[in-house]
Amino acid sequence: MLYHREGNVSNMSKSVIAIVGRPNVGKSTLFNRLVGKRISIVDDTPGVTRDRVYYEITWNDRQLILVDTGGIEPRTDDEMLRYMRLQAELAIEHADVIIFMTDIKAGLTASDRDISTMLLKSGKPVVLCVNKVDRLGEPPPEFYEFYELGYPDDPVPVSSLHGSGTGDLLDAVVAHLPPESESDEDDGWDDAIRIAVIGKPNTGKSSLINRILGEDRLIVSDMAGTTRDAVDTFVENEHGKYIFVDTSGIRRQSRINDRLEYYSVLRAKLAAERADVCLIVIDATQDISEQDSKIAGLAHDSGRASIILLNKWDLVEKDDNTAREYTDSVYRELGFMTYAPVITVSALTGQRIPRLFPEINEAVEQARKRITTGVLNEVLGDAITRVEPPSDKGRRLKIYYMTQVATQPPTFVIYCNNMELFHFSYRRYIENQLREVFGFRGTPIKLIVRERGDGEK
Q1: Which range has the worst mean pLDDT, 161-170, 209-218, 348-357, 384-393?
Q2: Predicted confidence band at 27 (pLDDT cuts at 50, 70, 90)?
Q3: Same domain, yes or no, for 145 and 198?
Q4: In the chain, how many domains are there?
Q5: How far apart are CA 417 and CA 260, in angstroms?
Q6: Domain boundary pick from 141, 175, 209
Q7: Is residue 127 domain-shared with residue 10, that is, in the same domain?
Q8: 235-272 confidence digits (pLDDT tens)
Q9: C-beta of residue 156 within 8 angstroms of C-beta of residue 168
Q10: CA distances for 178 relative to 13, 126, 196, 353, angstroms
Q11: Is residue 131 in a domain?
Q12: Residue 92 sits in a domain of what CATH number?
């Protein structure tokens, strides 16, 4: 049975801390300050952080999962703002402690009061954080108006910009957590397979994850580019443990006109690099574009195992040969990724979604495969016998031996007498021989050629 777990104290050793508040009070700046790197997008534009963003930190030997959320607008008819409010409410529901962030420069607003009422109704522990207290020492008089909200603990003054007060804030958060038990179960994140979902905008990436989860975990909209933050989601089922990373749709570089899109693309690239598997989502109702090829190249160049998903398959008119013809078309356009399986799916109907998990497991298994040096050199010897190494002007390429030095991707070092004679075509031939014998389905292979003299060891 598939289920989605975002965490609670009863079954996770890592406690979930949600940062909530109205737009533009500095939630993402605080989030980045606490994790020590730029994870959430920071911009003066309200509504920049739309989905929930997760990151693990350690404070006083306690492992915490911080959740950045979109700003809550209690009274709004705007569709996107209502989606953001829903996502924040989901984060509150799954949180163990809530950091309620306010802004001393704006003062205590009507929206702050409405949000506070919502938080008190949740029954969750709340730490009231007053941001933008940038001067050290006694807080300014405006600070004390936040006592009106009636929380039992004192508000914590912080400057997310400068970092002051953040230690006191985390101390206040940990004070609300129950003592850790040695019997607490591991949450499974450490040994889960990480899956980056990448593709052009509006190909159905968020809908795909929602279909897998069975809930509206991510904002789904027909507006291209809705998902701006990379979002980690834990899933466990009979096939194993997985972390899905939904990323912003990757657009053409020339169309990235603002800072938000730039950071979204950057984070999508980082998501691919830290994943075990990339699911490359392509819209089956459209021709494969140059941008699709570039995105696939992003996964290939990062060395990640990959599976190509032709989404919206329910909208394609088909006969008995349609799937094969589409697959052949994909391999023609993405000639460098013929190792990647192609699966036709529909996020809308769920068609072939269950097949993804065995394919993911197989791709990871292949990417983690190790071959002994002895077996490798038997295959290498047979390959050399079948097709002699190239020569040029009386010089012949001599290949001494090959060894595997890494996995994910499987990486092999080949020692020879002259690197210049090791032409690309012969390198491709050796790779094909490795695939023919060992498979490596779903994963790129990296070959490193090194030169040494005949007498060297």
Answers
A1: 209-218
A2: confident
A3: no
A4: 3
A5: 50
A6: 175
A7: yes
A8: 888 888 888 875 554 444 444 444 444 344 555 666 67
A9: yes
A10: 11, 14, 34, 39
A11: yes
A12: 3.40.50.300
Planar angle of CA 148, 152, 154, nearest 5 degrees:
70
Distance between CA atoms of residues 406 and 250, nearest Å: 29
Residue 310 near residue 346, CB atoms below 8 Å: no
What pLDDT is recorded for position 282?
Answer: 94
- pTM for the predicted model, two decimal places: 0.60
Q: Which position has the token pair 């509150």?
A: 92
**What percentage of residues in the chain have a pLDDT greater than 70?**
75
The backbone torsions φ and ψ at residue 342, rounded to the nearest 5 degrees and listed phi first, read: -110, 125
pLDDT band at 69 (very low <50, low <70, confident <90, very high): confident
Spatial distance between the Cα atoms of 31 and 26, rounded to a whole number of angstroms: 9
pLDDT band at 188 (very low <50, low <70, confident <90, very high): low
Q: Given this model, what pLDDT does residue 431 score?
A: 95
Same domain? For 315 and 422 the reply is no
- Would you say 410 and 367 are in contact if contact means Cβ atoms under 8 Å apart? yes
Statement to judge: residues 398 and 360 lie in one domain: no
What tokens appear for 11 in the block?
A: 């079954």
Nearest residue to 204 (alpha-carbon basis) of 357, 2, 351, 1: 351
Give me the sheet containing 399-406, strands edge to edge. 399-406, 411-416, 446-451
Supply the pLDDT for residue 215.
53
Please, which residues have CB within 8 angstroms of residue 273's CB and are 6 or more apart in sequence? 302, 304
Q: What is the dihedral of CA 325, 328, 329, 333, to 10 degrees?
A: 180
Listing DSSP states for 190-222 in one string gives: TTSEEEEEEESTTSSHHHHHHHHHTS--S---S
Structure-token pair, residue 60: 């006083």
Mean pLDDT over residues 89-116, rounded? 86
Give the orientation angle of helix 166-175 with respect to helix 27-35, to 10 degrees: 90
Which tokens is 377 given?
């050199």
The rounded distance, in Å, linking the Cα atoms of 13 and 7 is 9
End-of-domain residue from the set 140, 175, 210: 175
Which contacts of 329-334 are long-range, i.e. CB under 8 A and separated by 24 or more positions? 329/288, 330/282, 330/288, 333/288, 333/292, 333/293, 334/288, 334/292, 334/293, 334/296, 334/308
What is the pLDDT averaged over residues 414-423?
92
3-class DSSP state of 136: coil
Name the residue range of residue 69's domain: 3-175
Residue 294 neighbours by CB under 8 Å, 6+ apart: 250
pLDDT at 329 exceeding the cut of 70: yes
Of residues 320 and 77, more confidence is placed in 320
- Whether 449 and 419 have beta carbons less than 8 Å apart is answered as yes
